[in-house]
Amino acid sequence: MYSVLTRVNAILTYTLSVLACLTFLCFLSTLTVDYRTTAQMNTVKVVVKNVPDYGASRERNDLGYLTFDLKTDLSNLFNWNVKQLFLYLTAEYVTPNNELNQVVLWDKIILRGENAVLDFKNMNTKYYFWDDGNGLKGHNNVTLTLSWNIIPNAGLLPNIQALGQHSFKFPVEYTQTRV
Amino acid sequence: MDIFTSIPTHIDYVGQAKAEKLYRAIITLFSIVGFIWGYIVQQFSQSVYILGAGFILAAILTLPPWPMYRRNPLNWQNPRNTDEKSSGKKGKK
Fold first, then answer.
1. What's this model's pTM, rounded to 2 decimal places?
2. How many angstroms away from the CA of A77 is the closest CA of chain B?
């Protein structure tokens, strides 16, 4: 404290220590928040094709194609420790090849302050729904779930699954035409 | 450099203790207010801005040598007159 520079140093370090404490308290204040909420999903058009997967083995694999509806209100998930939400729609199913298949079909980033009331109709998927074989044709229990990853100012990065899911079937015949 | 060294920045010992208490009090107070306000409006950035305002206020109040930090100057002893003894050995220092 005996010179101006040591006073500057003392004030600055004290301010930054207090800021670290505030950030930690902010994290503690949102530790027990329940980030689950409901979401309604529905599939509109569901088609399965059998085409060569050049991205992997060049063998003919099953490619699912679907459009979906999604309705949910996520605005109450935002608090002072949520910077953005990363939404992703996952298809989950069981095949003889694998006990558990999870394919992310679509995702979306919602920043704080953006519209978080979602009502999508007949949306296309963003990513290809490839199976690693022929497990999709005639599959009668594929489950769509919506999840979100919460990106906070400080603290944990939880992955939350929405309450509500939708199960659908793939047709028993391959579609030959372009969709 | 003469310009910088000629600016008076000295505060006395009592003033140093006073300045330290003052900046701690100001920054702590602003952080508590900022935390509560940020929680009310659910904007952590508001808390950070209020803390920044506290930092600036504390800097204004404790960095310059305000008169309230210079009220207890040390009572130095008067310099001893040593001229008579060393008058014969001038130039040795």
1. 0.78
2. 12
